[in-house]
Amino acid sequence: MKRYALVTGASRGIGRAIAIELAKDGCSILLNYKSNHAAAEEAKRLIEEAGGEAELIPFDVSQPDAINAALDAWFAAHPDDYIDVLVNNAGIVDDDLMLMMEPEQWHRVIDVNLNGFFYCTRRVIEGMVENHHGRIINISSIAGQKGHPGQVNYAAAKAALIGATKELATELAPKTITVNAVAPGMIETEMAEQVAEYMPERMRDMNTIPMRRLGKPEEVAYLVSFLCSDKANYISGQVIGINGAAL
After folding, report:
1. Using N-to-C axis directions, what is the helix angle for 116-131 and 152-172, rounded to 10°?
2. What is the C-alpha to C-alpha distance for residues 224 and 183, in angstroms, rounded to an integer?
3. 56 by DSSP, 3-state: which?
4. Are 194 and 93 in contact (CB under 8 A)?
5. Per-residue CA distances from 86 to 107, 180, 192 (Å)
6. What CATH number does the domain located at 4-242 have?
7. Crossing angle for the helix pair 37-49 and 13-24, nearest 10 degrees?
8. 154 part of the active site
9. If you write DSSP's letter for every residue of 172-226 in order, what string do you get?
10. What pLDDT is stored for residue 169 in this prediction?
11. How far apart are the first and last CA of the chain?
12. Residue 134: is its pLDDT beyond 90?
């Protein structure tokens, strides 16, 4: 029986690295993205070149109707299968000091980074519960543990994701489903470049990172791979930082 893994926001950056690594582990990847079809196709090509399997499943994680429609169609085409691994990775930033932050900026970031977790997880966990097995990995952030000016919306969403991880882990533990959060620091991604446009000193000042470098998306993917493996059967409700000792 194939082991299916849904990775949201998987066309680029950390999500792409996670999808590729899980494919190497033998998972068949449901590669989610919102609109960048070219980047998603490239991620799919990289997975297949590495000997893995992937299918594209586009939807906006902030839109529950779109999520349900896409996943209903997938389940209808796979009546004997379920999604055993869910990586809630999709995320955006829209930085500004709170004094100048518009309500739209607040709601947009909360909708994708936090509500997207709720919508996707609620739809997927039924199959995990029925099969008494599953892995849920929520990609939080050091911003949810340690404040940075200009990211009140992003920090609020990522901190809430940590709380949701701990609570959901207790609910699903009797069904041998683990739920963990990974909290990356500054990683070499397009999102980090967006942050650099708003606060360039954070990207230049390696003194804030004891290892004196940014992390690589693949390093986050290795951690997610471990948490999805049988070696992590007794690890649940945890928040694991990957930040070069920045916290």
Report:
1. 10
2. 11
3. strand
4. yes
5. 24, 11, 24
6. 3.40.50.720
7. 30
8. yes
9. HGGGTEEEEEEEE-SBSSHHHHHHHHH-HHHHH-GGGSTTSS-B-HHHHHHHHHH
10. 98
11. 40
12. yes
Predicted pLDDT of residue 198: 52
Question: Which residue among the candidates 33, 154, 198, 234 is catalytic per the annotation?
Answer: 154
Q: What pLDDT is attached to residue 192?
A: 64
| Domains of the chain by residue range | 4-242
Give me the pLDDT at residue 189, please: 85
pLDDT at 203 over 90: no
> For 109, what's the count of Cα atoms within 13 Å in the CB-facing half-sphere?
23
At CA 143, angle to CA 168 and CA 244, rounded to 5?
100
What would the two tokens of residue 170 be? 């207790």
Give the list of residues 6+ apart from residue 159 with CB closer than 8 angstroms, or none: 140, 144, 145
Distance CA 204, CA 188 (A): 13
Average pLDDT (145-169) is 96
Nearest to residue 165, comparing CAs of 84, 71, 63, 235? 235
| Tokens representing residue 177 in the block | 């489903």
C-alpha separations of 18 from 32, 37, 175, 180, 224 in Å: 12, 18, 25, 15, 7
SS3 21: helix
